[in-house]
Predict the 3D structure of the following.
Amino acid sequence: MKHLLSASDLSYTEALTILDTAAQMARVSDGPIKKLPTLRGRTIVNLFFEDSTRTRISFEAAAKRLSADVINFSAKGSSVSKGESLKDTAQTLQAMGADAVIIRHSASGAPQRLADSEWTSGVVINAGDGTHEHPTQALLDAFTIRKHLKVGVGDLSGLTIAIVGDILHSRVARSNVILLSLLGAQVILVAPPTLLPLGVENWPAQISYDLDAILPHIDAVMMLRVQQERMNDFFFPTAREYSHYFGLNSDRLALLKKSAIIMHPGPMNRGLEITAACADSARSVIVEQVANGVSVRMAVLYLLLAGAPNENVESGEILS
Amino acid sequence: MSIALTAADISRALTRISHEILERNGGCESIVLMGIPTRGAFLSQRLANLIEAIEKTEVSVGTLDITLHRDDLRLRPIRALVPTLAPKGGIEGKDVILVDDVFFSGRTIRAALDALGEMGRPRSVQLAVLVDRGHRQLPIRADYVGKNLPTSRGEVVKVRLSEIDGADEVLLEPEGSK
C-alpha cells in the first residue's frame, strides 16, 4: 500500500497492523519525552482546502512527534483563492520536495486524482474528501472502540456499533462502515430516510429509523454532526424535530448498556445531535478520540513513510 | 550450517553472565534488565530468573523496542513495532543492563541507547549479549559476552530460543544459505 485514500484500501491484516502500531505510538504520547527521530528529514505537507481543526492539528502533532518537517497549507490566504488549480498547487509542493501530502478537499475523489497523477511523487493520505471518505477518522474510531471494549487487542468481532445522524453527507460514516465491518463489528445506521445516501442498502450495515429501539442493544454509539453547511435542501422539518427523534439526550443515555461508549467525530453541535450532558458524561470518549487520533496518525505516517521507498517487496513486509 | 552453541552451552553462558552481573554491580538492588525484542527480551527474563534464584530477591525487568530509533529504517521494508515494557520503578538512577542475542554492527545498541534516553536517565548502562560475532561499525563494546564467535561478514548467526523457536541453540550458517 503506497497511499491511504480509502478505508477500502485496507486489508484486515493491514488494518490490525495500523491499530497495533498505534497502540505502541500511544506509549510515546504518554511518555515524558514525546519525540521520536523516526521521520527526521522527511517533509510532510498538510494540504487543506477545507476548514479543519482536529484533523490538521492531529496530523501536525503526529508528524512532529516523529520528527518530520511539517508545512501547513490552507486554501484561505493562498494562491488557491486567486484561482490556482489542484495540479499547479501539487506541482509546487512537489518542487519543494514533499515526501507526503495530507489532503483535505471539498471534492470527493481529489486525493485519488492526486495519487493517480504524476503531479507528486509523495505518499498521499486522504484527510477527508467531500462526502466520500475520511479513513484516518475511521481508524481512530476503531482504535478507541477496541481500547474500551476489547482491552486494546484483536479485532472488533461481536460488537454492535450504531452510527447515528447525517449519513448522507458523512465521509466519517462511509469510512467507518467499511472499516468496522472489515474488523468484524456489526454496524447499524440510524437516520431519517432523507439523510441516507442512495444505495445504502448495499453497504455492509443494517438500517434503522428508530434510535430508541436499538440503543439497548449496542456497544458504542457514534453521533454524527449535522452538517449545516451542506444542508441546502429540506432534509428534516426543524432542528427541534431532528433532536427529538435522532439526538442523544439524558433519557436515551439511560437506555444504553452500562458498558456502552458515546463517540462523536467532532465538531459537535451541542443541543442538536447531542446534548451537553451526554457529551460531557463519563461514558463519552469524545475527547479521548482526539488523543487517539494522534497515535493512529503517527502509525499511518510511520507505516507509509519510514520504510524503504518504492520497494516494499521483501519478505517480512507488513503493508503490501 | 553448524551448531555454535548447544542448549547446555547457552544455559552455562547465561549462568556465568548472571554471576558476572552480580559481581560487578555488588548485588541486584540497583540493576534493571532491559531486553531488546524479540530474543533479547526472552534472554533478559532468563537472566532475571537466574539472578533471582541466586539472590532470592526480585529483579526489575523490562523490554525496549528500538525500531523507531533505527538508522536503517529507510533501507528496509517496514518493521512491525513490539511493546516497550517499562520496568517497575523505572530506570531513573538505576544500572541498566541491555540484553540482546547477537552483537554485530553495534547499531542496534546505539538505537537502544537513544531509546533509553527517552525513558529516563540511568546511572549507568551495561551490555550483555549471548553471542558477539564481531564486525563492529560503531565504538560500542559489550560488558558481558556469552560467546565470542568469529564470523565472516556474510555468514548468518541464528539464535533459536525455546520460548519461540521450540529449541535452544545458536547456529552458524554459511554465506548465501538463506
In short: The beta strands of chain B are 2-5, 31-35, 60-63, 95-103, 124-132, 144-148, 156-160, 169-173. Chain B touches chain A at residues 65, 68-69, 73-84, 114, 117-120 (CB under 8 Å). The first strand of chain B starts at residue 2 and ends at 5. The radius of gyration of chain B is 16 Å.
